[in-house]
Amino acid sequence: MMTRSSETRATLAPGIVPAHVAGMQPVSRRGALKGAAATLAAPALPALAQTPTASPPPRRLDQPLFGAVSWTLGNGLRVVLAENRRAPVAAHYLFASAGAGEDPAGKSGVAHFLEHMMFKGSPNIPSGAFSHTVAREGGQDNAFTSRDVTAYYQIVEASRLPLMMRMESDRLRTPLIPADELESERGVVLEERRSRTDAVPRGRFREAFDAAMWGREHWRGRPLIGWEDEIRAITRQDLVDFHNLHYAPANCVLVVAGDVREADLRRWADEFYAPIPTRPAPPRNRAPLASSAPESRIESRDPAVRESSFLKTFAAPSATWGEKSSVDPLEVVAHLLGGGTGSRLHKALVETGLAVGAGAGYDGDTVGVGTFGVYATPRQGVETARIEQAIEAVLTDLVQQGASEEEVRRGIRQQTAGSLLALDGLGAAPRLLGGALAIGLPLDFVEHWPKRMAEVTRDQVNAAARAVLADPKIATAGWLLPA
Amino acid sequence: MTDTLFGVELPPRRGFSVPIQVVEQGGITAWLVEDHSVPVVSLAWAWPQGAAADPVGKEGLASISAAMLSEGAGDLDNVGFADALRDEGIDLSFSGGRDSFEGSFRTLTDALPEAVRLAQLAMTRPRLDAEALGRVRARALLASRQSLETPAGLARRAFWEAGFPGFSAGRLSTPDSINAITQEDIRACLAAQVTRGRLLVAASGAIDAAGLRRLLGELFGALPEGTLAATPPLPALASFGITQRPKAAPQSTLVFGQDGLLPIDPGWESFQVALRILAGGGFTSRLMKSVREERGLTYGIGAGLDLLFGRAIVVGQVQTANASVGEVWNLIRAAWREMAANGPTEAEVADALAFLGGSLPLQFTDSRRTANLLLNLRQTGRAPEWLAGRPARLAAIDRTKVAEAAARVLKPDGLVLAVAGEPVGL
């Protein structure tokens, strides 16, 4: 995920140097629900003087996680409210249902460049005034671009929410994209590319890996930030066209979380967002996949690398593509295969001393094809072939023998046990709800995830594992090695 | 405060206060921010020392010792311990920092007894199995070597090595030092470190004072009293000028800094305002405007105050294409010089104060963040009342005070720089 800027924290207590280069963690629905919500950048509040001392009754599995409400404005803008009265703070997120996957052919980087230029003014808000105003009000603002969405957000004291809505709706309607600021911002984007990729051997490898697996010019194989030569070629008109096409109200989702009443939000949404003229929402118009990976194997030797890494990725169903009912079972597969200590890959590679680390991951909250990956970092001196053999043995065993009932039940329990921790903050709700709606999924996809997971069966898990891992049509294996 | 902005009416802010309760049990005190709206409890605790006590040649000992606490305890081996935590969705972790040793957990209230049991078990009966040490050591070696793959990793390391040669703040772990660490070293480190002495605790979430008091007894009551020594103070940051680490890469990382102002200094908050205007916080600082917004020379630049070993050090970082390193370094020093000589404008001070005051509610985010903040305040030596007094202290700051603090502390000619890459123009 690309962001406008890596995020910083205001410090009451010093001792923390702002992480200007650390960047923001990509957030997946399941990652957050599994209890990683605190890796989210956005805050929420505890402890007010008048909080009641009695604990609320325990929640049941069949209750919606956030209890969000949703409605649609006349121009098609979807509005979501996840109320949370812990403290006088509101998080305000606007998602456009367009990301790097919508970059025009040969112009990778347009969605992300536009995200940067959205801070350069709109008819009523001068360039730079947006972030200046948010800061002056004590808030935080930023934006991020993924393959599927571009999102803009502010976190402010709750009484400042209408001001945020005023400013955000102004640039949603008409960003200025001033020509005389284009080249300096292009420089910023190119520096961002160097910081994330060109100066980082593991970044270079990930980029080469995706290009090998999906094709250098395919929407799935291009870097989110864009190829350098294509970033250099982007024109102002490209950005204007992208905004005109994709930032239609009906192609956007507004999510507010925090200490906000529904009636107030309805009034403000009507005042600030409803007057934006209706435009048609464009369909996602992405190229189909090739029948096989352009390169099923790569080896990158890099003089900057000190430690080898192995990665193998399989094309997989997602919540919007292929066998959609496999999405929850594949989460279980990823967990029991490589979800940390105790998983099959950990036992076979880490406990045995072959690897420093090994695991698996699944990303199925995507527009179009999802990905299932396994990875390992060998201990020094261990032959690469031994690592691959050990991984293949684990995968073959899972495909042929399947997972046990106990493994499946425990995997589900461990993945969902911490899901209520997503309520501990104002970051998880807008990112999960907005992220789902913006790729065409219903609210329930997030709200009832724990319940759905609890209903996943061993047969579903084993069938999903076989479908993805046995005889894959699109899969690539890659080694990053010291030169 | 403006009444309307861009046509939007700005009502007065709602009042916000964070009552901090101080809870004591058996000589151990904890700060608590209580909130029952979400069934979650976060606890964070810390001892001084950490890596400051690493013997010469065994750098990395505190960090590895901390990692070993999550690798099995009592009857639970590493897998059993990890499963016990994850079955209940408990996040428990320990870390060995540069001058502190810390533990924390976040858990749903239903699982609080189990979180306390496992954390207590980890601190009192860690297994320290040889196989587990092998895995933890391999991870540490990997991290140590990987950190040298990028200009950023090299430059950060170079800054501390050059800034505090011969002191633990400048002695960072190497493959040799990591390989030299034995089980006996870890046992000795934990015995000295994990005690009741000098322990600081902070809590936030769905727990009341009585519950926290019980928890303190269960969690820490069995620890030995301990005789943790005070960490020896550091000297001033060495004036090493510019140190370079060559690295074939299209972009260089610059880490720059100077000595800062200690939190006990009466001018500390004025200096905090000056530093925010010059180099802190998001998109509004002078450095961000000059280097990023106006010239497009970086993705991000900023500096903050780092506190360790009783010293305060201003540390900043920026990454820029090799060809622009000289220009960026000149811009940094020019901004430093201008702020030291002439201070901020009235408008800049008003903006910075508005941000610092207005952002108070946002600082108390989720329960884990709140607990960490309380712990940081304690580590900084603040009293519980410090927080409540903050708005009044900010209100008393004006341009003159900020300019004075800037002139007193900022040393444009004393800025030191560690740079890695293939920089041009230095």
Task: Indicate the topology.
The complex is a heterodimer of chains A (483) and B (426).
Chain A: E1 2-3, H1 29-36, E2 69-72, E3 78-83, E4 89-96, H2 110-117, H3 129-136, E5 140-145, E6 150-157, H4 161-173, H5 182-198, H6 201-214, H7 228-233, H8 236-246, E7 252-258, H9 262-273, E8 297-302, E9 309-316, H10 327-338, H11 344-350, E10 355-363, E11 370-378, H12 384-401, H13 405-416, H14 428-437, H15 444-447, H16 449-454, H17 458-469, E12 475-482
Helix pairs in contact in A: 2-8, 4-9, 10-13, 10-17, 11-12, 12-17
Chain B: E1 4-5, E2 8-9, E3 21-25, E4 28-34, E5 40-48, H1 61-68, H2 78-87, E6 91-96, E7 100-108, H3 112-124, H4 130-146, H5 151-163, H6 175-179, H7 183-193, E8 200-205, H8 209-220, E9 242-246, E10 251-259, H9 268-279, H10 286-293, E11 301-308, E12 311-321, H11 325-342, H12 346-358, H13 360-363, H14 367-379, H15 385-388, H16 390-395, H17 399-409, E13 416-421
Helix pairs in contact in B: 1-7, 3-8, 9-12, 9-17, 10-11, 11-17
Question: Would you mind describing this structure in some detail?
Answer:
Chain B: Pfam families: Peptidase_M16_C (PF05193). Chain B: It comes from Roseococcus pinisoli. Chain B: InterPro entries: Metalloenz_LuxS/M16 (IPR011249), MPP/UQCRC_Complex (IPR050361), Peptidase_M16_C (IPR007863). The complex is a heterodimer of chains A (about 475) and B (about 425). Chain A is an alpha+beta fold and about 475 residues long. Chain A folds into two domains: about 240 residues, Metalloenzyme, LuxS/M16 peptidase-like (Cytochrome Bc1 Complex, Chain A, domain 1, 2-Layer Sandwich); about 190 residues, Metalloenzyme, LuxS/M16 peptidase-like (Cytochrome Bc1 Complex, Chain A, domain 1), CATH 3.30.830.10. Chain A has a seven-stranded mixed β-sheet with strand order 1-5-6-4-7-3-2, with helices on both faces. A five-stranded mixed β-sheet of chain A has the order 8-12-9-11-10, with helices on both faces. In chain A, strand 5 and strand 6 form a beta hairpin. In chain A, helix 4 packs parallel to helix 9. The longest helix of chain A has 18 residues. Chain B has about 425 residues and is an alpha+beta fold. In chain B, helix 1 packs across helix 7 and helix 9 packs across helix 17. In chain B, a hairpin with a 2-residue loop joins strand 1 and strand 2. In chain B, the strands form three sheets. Chain B has a six-stranded mixed β-sheet with strand order 3-4-8-5-7-6. Chain B contains 17 helices and 13 strands. Helix content of chain B is about 40%, strand content about 20%. Chain B folds into two domains: about 200 residues, 2-Layer Sandwich (Cytochrome Bc1 Complex, Chain A, domain 1), CATH 3.30.830; about 180 residues, 2-Layer Sandwich (Cytochrome Bc1 Complex, Chain A, domain 1), CATH 3.30.830.10. Chains A and B meet through helix 3, strand 6, helix 4, helix 5 and helix 13 of A and strand 2, helix 2, helix 4, strand 11 and strand 12 of B.
